[in-house]
């Protein structure tokens, strides 16, 4: 076609181009225009897919080809609440480094000392990945959602001492009271099954409000068949809402949240409800503080300063631009409530469920230790030190529970560092990072997940079996015990590890010690393997969102 008009020797290139375009324009019919409109994006998508598959710097990393081409694959598994399992299957099929998205790489460190894992989560001080943008509270930042390592480190310094082991130990009397009240509630239920998942939520709401604001919510005390706790129901809804908001684009969510159904409206506004409830506590505290009702106990050894007191004390001691606004204080407090209540309730529910289905001799082993440590049935006579250091069987039960049914065993994403982030001597270098022999360019989303770490056959023999004895074997060699400890990461890893782990550990042990000292536990007919299957929202939950167990007072 071009040759009719185009003579290289007599026409300039510019004239030739103009003629060519004119020629094309005259030959365009509505059909060819339509075809081009359809074909153009298709050609673009195909070239993009081919580029991602064959020309991306991540092309050499094994993994399903459809995952390399588009994020749809991982999105689909997120929607099916099975992302963690899909990634685990990839490790089994493709090995320890897998490309699970066009720009995302998952790894499972085969080293027993977890060197690569430690490099990624600790040494390199990496930023978090983009998924954390979805967990903002009412548009406000808080420590879980802060992406940049440096910003986070500064923020965390304001309150990390609140969660130190020694400060959390001061909350032990409240933990004991909550555990005793839970036992009383179980006794009141007579022979009826008790939903321990619900009960633990109430325990944790009370404890976290006590630790944060010094406030007695009395959520557990008010627990009855018909009771309704606004914080409890908002937390339940919000876990699912976060998942939806993480997947659905903002504009679409803004549209669908208008759907005029009362339950749907309550669900969609669960974040606002929780935020407003916590904001109320923050404002009340400020009012009382302004009125001189709170003298500082920050430096007191006996008194336990509340979390909110620490935030205000920070404001007193810094320049105005570093001060936290009331919204930021609310958002931070709310994030601790959300991170702590669900996770601890899920953990205790699975541990009690596992206890209920253990052979008699295992149950006996656990209870014999508690009988010895707490000779007086019905009262929590244990001090903090004994609870933490002298109950190896209870310790093994908790470790095994968190290994197999950890509430947050999910892919914890980080961003591969740019040149300025890679410290000398590490395996990060100017053109990216070396992960188990693969070069990872800056900006790639990388991470691992404790779900898979906890199921390593070479570290935890028979990993799917719930077996507390693996943590107790005195004569097993030290290397295997060390390897298990290194690969055990239910509270996350490195610089962004769970800040509330001592609170969680204390509350779990206190409740479990007293409940198992007082009751024999069995499954109720409505609780079984199927209802206790784990589904993944951001963390894991029993699919039935309950854990009904029968508690029989021990003779
Ligand atoms: C058994 C109970 C718990 C488990 C298994 C657990 C697990 C985790 C994990 C895996 C992370 C890391 C998430 C990540 O890297 O994105 C995390 C972070 C966090 N957890 Fe927990 N958690 C528990 C209880 C608690 C409690 C009781 C609180 C507070 C009262 C809490 C507050 C937090 C906060 C604030 C973070 C964010 C830390 C940061 O980025 O600096 N957690 N938790």
Bound molecules: protoporphyrin IX containing FE
Spatial arrangement of strands, main beta sheet = 1-2-8-4
Counting H and I runs of at least 4 residues, what is the number of helices? 23
Distance between the termini: 98 Å
What gyration radius follows from the Cα positions, in whole Å?
Answer: 28 Å
Organism: Lentinula raphanica
Cofactor: heme
Keywords: Heme, Iron, Membrane, Metal-binding, Monooxygenase, Oxidoreductase, Transmembrane, Transmembrane helix
InterPro entries: Cyt_P450, Cyt_P450_E_grp-IV, Cyt_P450_sf, Cytochrome_P450_monoxygenase
Write a structural description.
This protein is 52% helix and 8% strand. By secondary structure, the protein is an alpha+beta fold. A hairpin with a 2-residue loop joins strand 5 (428-429) and strand 6 (432-435). Helix 10 runs parallel beside helix 23 and helix 17 (326-356) packs across helix 20. The radius of gyration is 28 Å and the shape is globular. Mean pLDDT is 89; it is low at 1-10 and 424-429. The protein binds protoporphyrin IX containing FE.
What descriptive keywords fit this protein?
globular; alpha+beta; single chain; 23 helices; 8% strand; 555 residues; 12 strands
Question: What topology emerges from the helices and strands here?
Answer:
Blueprint: H1 2-5, H2 13-27, H3 30-55, H4 65-69, H5 72-79, H6 83-94, E1 97-101, E2 104-107, H7 115-123, H8 149-157, H9 165-169, H10 172-188, E3 194-195, H11 196-213, H12 230-247, H13 250-256, H14 262-268, H15 270-290, H16 307-317, H17 326-356, H18 360-373, H19 384-389, H20 392-405, E4 414-415, E5 428-429, E6 432-435, E7 438-440, E8 445-447, H21 450-453, H22 478-487, H23 501-518, E9 519-523, E10 534-536, E11 540-542, E12 548-553
Parallel strand pairs: 2-8
Antiparallel strand pairs: 1-2, 3-12, 4-8, 5-6, 6-7, 9-12, 10-11
The structure holds protoporphyrin IX containing FE.
Subcellular location: Membrane
Organism: Lentinula raphanica
Cofactor: heme
């Amino acid at each position: 076609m071009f040759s009719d008009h185009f003579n290289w020797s007599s026409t300039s290139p510019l004239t030739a181009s103009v003629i060519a375009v004119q020629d094309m324009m005259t030959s365009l019919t509505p059909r060819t225009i339509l075809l081009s409109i359809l074909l153009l994006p298709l050609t673009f998508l195909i070239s993009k897919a081919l580029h991602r598959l064959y020309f991306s710097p991540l092309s050499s990393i094994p993994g399903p080809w459809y995952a390399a081409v588009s994020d749809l694959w991982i999105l689909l598994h997120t929607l099916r609440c099975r992302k963690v399992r899909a990634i685990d299957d990839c490790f089994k099929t493709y090995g320890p480094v897998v490309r699970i998205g066009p720009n995302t790489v998952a790894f499972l460190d085969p080293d027993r000392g977890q060197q690569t894992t430690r490099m990624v989560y600790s040494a390199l001080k990496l930023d978090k990945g983009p998924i954390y943008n979805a967990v903002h509270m009412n548009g406000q930042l808080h420590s879980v959602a802060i992406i940049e390592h440096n910003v986070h480190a500064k923020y965390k310094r304001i309150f990390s001492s609140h969660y130190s082991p020694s400060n959390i130990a001061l909350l032990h009397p409240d933990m004991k009271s909550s555990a005793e009240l839970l036992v009383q509630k179980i006794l009141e239920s007579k022979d009826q099954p008790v939903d321990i998942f619900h009960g633990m939520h109430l325990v944790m709401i009370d404890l976290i409000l006590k630790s944060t604001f010094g406030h007695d919510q009395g959520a557990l005390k008010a627990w009855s068949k018909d009771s309704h706790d606004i914080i409890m129901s908002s937390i339940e809804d919000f876990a699912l809402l976060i998942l939806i908001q993480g997947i659905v684009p903002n504009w679409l969510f803004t549209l669908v949240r208008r759907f005029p159904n009362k339950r749907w409206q309550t669900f969609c506004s669960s974040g606002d409800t929780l935020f407003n409830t916590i904001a109320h506590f923050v404002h009340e505290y400020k009012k009382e503080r302004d009125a001189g009702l709170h003298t500082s106990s920050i430096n007191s050894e006996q008194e336990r300063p509340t979390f909110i007191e620490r935030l205000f004390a920070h404001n007193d001691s810094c320049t105005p631009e570093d001060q936290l606004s009331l919204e930021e204080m609310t958002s931070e407090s709310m994030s601790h409530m959300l991170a702590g209540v669900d996770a601890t309730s899920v953990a205790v529910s699975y541990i009690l469920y596992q206890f209920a289905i253990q052979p008699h001799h295992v149950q006996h082993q656990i209870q014999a230790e508690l009988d010895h440590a707490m000779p007086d049935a019905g009262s929590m006579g244990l001090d903090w030190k004994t609870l933490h250091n002298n109950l190896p069987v209870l310790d093994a039960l908790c470790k095994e529970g968190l290994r197999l049914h950890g509430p947050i065993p999910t892919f914890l994403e980080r961003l591969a560092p740019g040149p300025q982030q890679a410290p000398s001597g590490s395996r990060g270098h100017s053109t990216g990072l070396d992960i188990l022999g693969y070069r990872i360019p800056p900006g790639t989303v990388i991470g691992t997940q404790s779900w898979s770490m906890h199921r390593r056959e070479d570290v935890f023999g028979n990993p799917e079996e719930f077996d507390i004895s693996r943590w107790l074997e005195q004569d097993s060699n030290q290397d295997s015990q060390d390897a298990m400890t290194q690969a055990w990461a239910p509270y996350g890893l490195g610089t962004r590890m769970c800040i509330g782990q001592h609170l969680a550990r204390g509350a779990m042990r206190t409740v479990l010690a007293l409940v198992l000292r007082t009751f024999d536990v069995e499954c109720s007919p409505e609780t079984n393997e199927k209802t206790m299957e784990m589904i993944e929202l951001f963390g894991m939950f029993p699919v039935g969102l309950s854990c009904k167990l029968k508690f029989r007072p021990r003779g």
